[in-house]
Amino acid sequence: MEYYSNQISKLIEELSRLPGIGAKTAQRLAFYLISQPVESVNQLATAITEARTKVRYCKSCCTLTDEELCPICASQNRNHKLIMVVENSRDLAAYEKTGKYDGVYHVLHGAISPMLGIGPADIRLKELMQRLQGDVEELIIATNSSLEGETTAMYISKLVKPSGIKVSRIASGVPVGGDIEYIDEVTLLRALEGRVEL
Ligand code: ZN
C-alpha cells in the first residue's frame, strides 16, 4: 500500500484534514507543493505559522485580529451602542463590505445546534452577555436563517429581553438556509434595514 515516500504520505494526510479537501485534491496539492521552489513553499509555511500564532480573538467582539482590539472595536467612528451578532468573521466581512453599517459586531464563532451537540457554552455567548452590561442600546441578531441560526437567535433574544435592551432580527431578505457570507450586498442591506424587533 506504500506508493509514496513517508514524507509525501504525511503531507497528503495533513492536507486531507483541511475542510473541503478530499483525498484526490490532497494528492494534487502535495505534488504541486513538492514541484515548487523551496523559497515559495517556505513563504507559504511561514504565512500559515505566523497567522496561527499572531492572530487572536478581539478582546471585545471576539473576531479574529492581530491586535488586542480589532480595528472596528478600536474605531471612534463606530456606534458602540449598536451591536450586530454574527456567527463568524466571514459574516462580519460580508456586512462590512456593504459599507453602510456603522455599529460594532459580536462574533459567536458558531451557532447552537442540539443535533451536533453544540450548546450555548460552546459559542461566544458569555462574552456577549458581559458586553451587554455596558452602554448598549440595540442588539441586531444576524445569525444565518438555518435551523441553528434561528435557534441561536431565539436563545439570545430570551436571554437579553429582561435587560430592556432592544433586540432585533435581520429581515427575511436573507433566504431560508442561506449563508450570510454568500449573499449579495443589496440583499444584506435590505435585511438589515428591514429588521424586526423581537
Ligand atoms: Zn473587535
Explain the overall architecture:
It is a single chain. The chain has helices at residues 6-15, 23-35, 38-54, 71-74, 89-98, 125-131, 147-160, 185-193, and strands spanning 56-57, 64-65, 79-86, 103-107, 138-141, 166-169, 196-197. 42% of the residues lie in helices and 14% in strands. The N and C termini lie far apart (59 Å). It has eight helices and seven strands; from the N terminus they run H-H-H-E-E-H-E-H-E-H-E-H-E-H-E. The strands form two sheets. It has a five-stranded mixed β-sheet. A two-stranded antiparallel sheet has the order 1-2. The chain is an alpha/beta fold and 198 residues long. Bound molecules: zinc ion (ZN). Zinc ion is lined by residues 58, 60-61, 63, 69-70, 72-73.
Question: What's the helix and strand layout?
Answer:
Blueprint: H1 6-15, H2 23-35, H3 38-54, E1 56-57, E2 64-65, H4 71-74, E3 79-86, H5 89-98, E4 103-107, H6 125-131, E5 138-141, H7 147-160, E6 166-169, H8 185-193, E7 196-197
Parallel strand pairs: 3-4, 3-5, 5-6
Antiparallel strand pairs: 1-2, 6-7
Helix pairs in contact: 1-2, 5-8
The protein binds zinc ion (ZN).
Would you summarize the structure shown here?
The protein is an alpha/beta fold and 198 residues long. It contains eight helices and seven strands. Zinc ion (ZN) binds at residues 58, 60-61, 63, 69-70, 72-73.
